[in-house]
Description:
The complex is a heterodimer. By secondary structure, chain A is an alpha/beta fold. Chain A has helices at 4-25, 37-46, 60-65, 85-92, 119-132, 150-155, 170-173, 200-206, 217-222, 238-246, 257-266, 291-306, 309-319, and strands spanning 95-99, 102-103, 107-109, 116-117, 140-144, 161-163, 176-178, 183-185, 187-191, 209-213, 231-235, 252-256, 271-273, 280-282, 285-287. Chain A folds into three domains: 4-63, no CATH class; 85-184 and 280-328, 3-Layer(aba) Sandwich (D-Maltodextrin-Binding Protein, domain 2), CATH 3.40.190; 187-273, 3-Layer(aba) Sandwich (D-Maltodextrin-Binding Protein, domain 2), CATH 3.40.190. Chain A has 13 helices and 15 strands. Chain A starts with a helix and ends in a 23-residue tail after the last helix. Chain B folds into two domains: 32-62 and 201-438; 71-196, de novo design (two linked rop proteins) (Up-down Bundle), CATH 1.20.1440. The model of chain B has no long low-confidence stretch (mean pLDDT 86).
Amino acid sequence: xxxxxxxxxxxxxxxxxxxxxxxxxxxxxxxxxxxxxxxxxxxxxxxxxxxxxxxxxxxxxxxxxxxxxxxxxxxxxxxxxxxxxxxxxxxxxxxxxxxxxxxxxxxxxxxxxxxxxxxxxxxxxxxxxxxxxxxxxxxxxxxxxxxxxxxxxxxxxxxxxxxxxxxxxxxxxxxxxxxxxxxxxxxxxxxxxxxxxxxxxxxxxxxxxxxxxxxxxxxxxxxxxxxxxxxxxxxxxxxxxxxxxxxxxxxxxxxxxxxxxxxxxxxxxxxxxxxxxxxxxxxxxxxxxxxxxxxxxxxxxxxxxxxxxxxxxxxxxxxxxxxxxxxxxxxxxxxxxxxxxx
Amino acid sequence: xxxxxxxxxxxxxxxxxxxxxxxxxxxxxxxxxxxxxxxxxxxxxxxxxxxxxxxxxxxxxxxxxxxxxxxxxxxxxxxxxxxxxxxxxxxxxxxxxxxxxxxxxxxxxxxxxxxxxxxxxxxxxxxxxxxxxxxxxxxxxxxxxxxxxxxxxxxxxxxxxxxxxxxxxxxxxxxxxxxxxxxxxxxxxxxxxxxxxxxxxxxxxxxxxxxxxxxxxxxxxxxxxxxxxxxxxxxxxxxxxxxxxxxxxxxxxxxxxxxxxxxxxxxxxxxxxxxxxxxxxxxxxxxxxxxxxxxxxxxxxxxxxxxxxxxxxxxxxxxxxxxxxxxxxxxxxxxxxxxxxxxxxxxxxxxxxxxxxxxxxxxxxxxxxxxxxxxxxxxxxxxxxxxxxxxxxxxxxxxxxxxxxxxxxxxxxxxxxxxxxxxxxxxxxxxxxxxxxx
Lengths: 342, 438
């Protein structure tokens, strides 16, 4: 337990070094390491613009959570100001969103109704209602995307907003824009044998096989020297990791505690163990040029914080489903609106 | 060097002996010459009897092999279609979640059972290499069924991990189907090789018949000149029988190979094309379900749908234009493709619910109903039409092989008997002249 702060400091140093290098040479940090040429080009350009891209990340976590100020006054639903991205969405009559369909509790397909539901989906419905009015949630067009498609789909303009248990980090700010933090998650491990593997270090010391999704920040974290000894089992998707555990290909899976709580709900023989060893602040992703939409979304989220909507959503999906005890649900994170407008 | 000298010496010795015997034959008396001519002709006739029987038997066997390989090809293709069809049902069942109908479930079970039973039959008719491949298919089929069950169990409980199992199942099915394609390819090669063998197997009949004919013609001429007889009736009848054996035998033989070739180039090729179209069509139907499971983001599966669809269209167009087979199935598939386009346009426009309803139930609101689109019904029409065509062409191919084969059994024994009769006639013909010296 007392080793966690040290581990976090190590993690931050790595992120800081990575992001500083990224800002200087236009390269990407771990987790989104392979970028298309056109995206690398846009990052190189962005690094010369002090307002939209960081020159360096002296304190990556704090900097990452900084977002554009919320609109001081929310426009009435169905009356989005002309010339804004919200007006475009309103005129189109559809809010196109990128979501997960297999992350139980946050974004998953209800196999009986066929509907996609979860924490992220309810947050999106709140945004949609703020744009369109009471029928807003019927105007959402869901596009099921994978982890790897989250940033490219925003960059390509295929979706307006991504709500996909997406961690806000310095590197991703180079490519897209984020809302304020709406949920504070952390990376944990899910095991089948709690007695043998009470935490991630027991897995390390036993040389256990730990599954993680390819191209995720989770796999980067577990591949660090601190966890040398763990045999990393990469899988295309995090849900493949639960299958791998059930088929005996891995002793554990590492991922965000939110996702793993969903796994534990699907397989009672598995259990979340140990403390979170990273901080994973979740935010809604938007195109980096849609600054007005980010400000609007921030205002909606701020209102949801104030009127208890975010707390209710957390209760509905994390407590009422039995995934977490009420006391284990992290408090609704405070926003940081200190990012300078471009 | 010493060995070479010894060999050369032996050869020279043999040549000298042959020359002495030839000279001796030339100087031999007429009865001896007659006995020698009779012995040679009788032996040649017996050779015709054996070589003719062997030649026709080889052809018969080659056509049998081609028929068995054709039957095996249809069997293996049927297994592939059953597996792809089962996977299509599983994918569509996943789309409707816990609301899978008992009928759909029963249909899936029956497809898997048919595939497993078909595999058992196919293993028995396979070459050793193909049998090994088919055994691996059998093992993978068991794994596939297990994964689909896991997907179903999770799906029923509303657990999204079912999607991961479904993906794994599809990956296993894909490997399994590739193995079946490999076996199909090698079985097609077996059909071609057997037919080539059938074409090659007449030479011993022709050679032995010509040898007997030459012996009889030369013998008849010699007897006519030496004994001033216009016609030696037994030898003349024997010559006529040889000509009959040659003409009738080659004719029947040729017709048999031609009929078997027609079966390969006709109904078997048509059945092959229709079976390929069916497998690709069911694969397309699976891909359609996957485009919807990956709500709004099914571009990769839509590409697979397009690829499978182009295979269906090409195979059925060729079958229709070349053989006049599968034209109705092609029309049904085109109707389904139009309905699929509507499903995609609904999903792409964000009307996922309506897209799913259209793809699974076909009962939509009046606007969509007015378009006349009904993917399940259109696809079912294709499935029924193509299945009927496949059964008809497979049956026709099997019947053609049987018909090609049947006369060869009679011909084989007839040629063997003809050889014996010719031998008897040769004995009789030369025997008449010999009796004149007693």
